[in-house]
Amino acid sequence: SEIWDETTDVLGQAMTDVVNIIEPDVLVIGGGVTRSGEQLIGPVRAGVLGAAMPPAAGAVRVEIAYLGDAVGVVGAACLAFDLLGVDRGLDRGADLGADSTEGTVHA
Fold it and tell me: What confidence tens digit (pLDDT) does each residue in 45-91 have?
């Protein structure tokens, strides 16, 4: 629909600005909107890769968060545990496919 196209276009433009300014290796989209999967990520990824400056566009990946729409709840719980000083007994990201020595998450 026209509204969806405008939404993915605006999101792609905003993410392109981030890529051009910060030059991240990965942009991750999380939250409820990620339930739409490829319908969301396809146009956003195409917009970012097509509009970002060449060096940055060639280096960035645009992905959906591993936790999908649960990312906000999990993040809030982790923050609460941290603020309460609770040891979760996990190396940060260890159960999410993260390599704790390198700080990278493997898809």
Answer: 999 999 999 999 999 999 998 888 888 888 888 889 889 988 876 65
Tokens 């906000």 sit at which residue?
72
Nearest to 8 by CA among 32, 38, 28, 52: 38
Going by C-alpha positions, the residue among 66, 11, 6 that lies closest to residue 41 is 11
Measured CA to CA, the distance from residue 59 to residue 61 in angstroms comes to: 7
In DSSP terms, which residues pair with 101 in a beta bridge?
A: none
Residues in the chain: 107
The DSSP symbol for 21 reads H
